[in-house]
Automatic annotation (TrEMBL):
The keyword Transmembrane helix applies. Keywords: Membrane, Transmembrane, Transmembrane helix. The lineage of its organism: Bacteria, Bacillati, Cyanobacteriota, Cyanophyceae, Chroococcidiopsidales. GO terms for cellular component: membrane. This is O-antigen ligase-related domain-containing protein. It is found in: Membrane. Residues 241-367 form the O-antigen ligase-related domain.
Amino acid sequence: MIRPQNFRPPTSNPSSYFSRQATLVGQQPDIFAEQLVFWTIALVPLWWILGLQLVVYPVVGWYLFYRSLQRPNQVSVPFGWQMWCVYIGVWIISLLVNLAIGTAEVGRSITAFGSITGVWMLTVALWYAMRRLSIRHRVIVRAICVVGLCQLVAVILGEAYLTATGSIPQTHSLLVTLIPSIPSKIFFDAALYGRETLVWDADPIPRLKSFYYWSPLAGTMSIFICSAAMAERQRFWQIAALLGGLATVWLAAARAAQVGIVLAIIVSLWFGSKWGRKLLIACAIPVGLLSPIIISELYKYFFEYRKDSAAGRLALYEETYKAFLNSPLIGFGAQGRSNVLADIPLGSHSQLYSTLYQTGIIGCAVLAVAWLAIAWAIFQLVRKQPMLSPVLGAWIGLTLVMPGGELAAASVTVFAIAAWLGCAWNQVEQATIKRNLPWLLNTPLPELPTPWEIWQRWFSGSQPYSKDRHLTYMRMAKHEKKDPVRRLRWGSRDR
C-alpha cells in the first residue's frame, strides 16, 4: 500500500482529522462524469451534424443526475431552485387540468411535457448533478470556449463560401439525410444558414444559425461563450471564444442577444476586478457624449430593421394576451393555435407570454420569484469570489433575451448554463473548505487531470493519469470511521 507523500496526521483527535480529510475527498470530482460533461458541451458541432442535438443533452443530463445519486456527499438546494421546482409542479397541474377539460390538445400537451422534462426539469437536475459530482468550474468554462472556437471556424468557412459562390452552403445532418421526412425536421437538421425576409415581398437574405435550431438560439449561446471567455485562464481560448461569440451573434442578427452580450461583459468587468470598474468609468464619458447618436442608431436597428418581423411578433403577443385572459389563473398548460400567424403557436416566441399563456398568473409569479432568487444567489457567490462575475453576466444576459425568446426546446443552452451554474457553486464551496482547513495545505490531495489533459496524454500514447495517490486518499476516507487509529498506523508505513 502506498503512503501519501508528506502525510503527517495530527497525533491528537485522529478521528476528527480523518473526518475532515474525508470531507475534502468528497469534493474530488468524478473523473468520468467530468469528461462526459466536457465532451458533451465541446462536441456541439458533432451532435449538430449527426442530428442528435435534441436527444444527446437530456440523455446525458439525466444520466449524470442518476450517477450523482451514487455519491455519498449531500448538497443543499437553494431557495431559487426550490421555487423552480414549484413552477414545474404548477405547469404539470395546469397541463393535466386542461387535458381533463379538453382545452389543451393532446399533441401540443406531449410537446409541453417534453419541454418540462427535457428543459425545465433538466436544468435543476443537471445543476444538482454538477454539485454532487464536484465538477470543476474551469472544465465547464473551457468546454464552452471550445464551442466558441468551433463557431469561429464555422463563421470563417461559411462566409468564405457565401462570398465565393453567392449562395449559402447547403448542409444537412446525417439523421435527416437518412430519414428526409422526419417530423419536426428543424430540430434534427444541420442547416448552417437560414434565409430571413426583412420586408414583406422582398428577397430573403442569409442569416447565420450556426450549430443551433434557429438564429436567436445561436445568439443566446454566444452570450454564454463571450461570458466564459471572460472567465477563461488561457489567452488563446479567451480570444478564440470571444471572436467566435461576437461574430456569430452579429451574423445571426440576434438583436436581444447582442445587447445581452454587452450587458454580460459590463457585469463581468464591473464585479470582476477594480481595473474593470475603472475601465467602465473611463468609457462612460465618451459614451455619454455620443449618447444621442447611439440612441438614434439603436432605435433604427431595433425598431426599423426587420420591422415586419417585429410587427408580427407584436400581433402574436397581443393575441396571446387576449387568450390568457380567458384562463388567467393556471393558463392553458400547452401552446395553442394562432389565428393571426397560422404557422406559429400561440404562447411562443417569448418566455414572458409563454409562461402567462401556459401557467397563468400563478406560474408567472412563481417563475419570477425563482428567477430573481437564483440571480440573487449568483450575486452572493460573486461577492465571495469576484472571479465568478462572468456567471452573473451570463445569467443577466439570458434574462434580457427571455422577453423575446424562450427556453422551450433549448436543451443546448440549458445544458451549458445549468452545468456552469452548478460548477460556480462548487468553486465557492471548495475555496471555503480550503480556507477553513489551512492545515490541509501540508497534505494536499492530488490535482486530478482535466479532460483535455487526459485526451492529450492518451493522444501522445502515455498513461492518462495515475490513480494510485487518489485511490489512497479514497481508501482513507472510506475506512476512517471504522478505525482512525489504524489509519494513523497505516499512514506512517513505509512504501
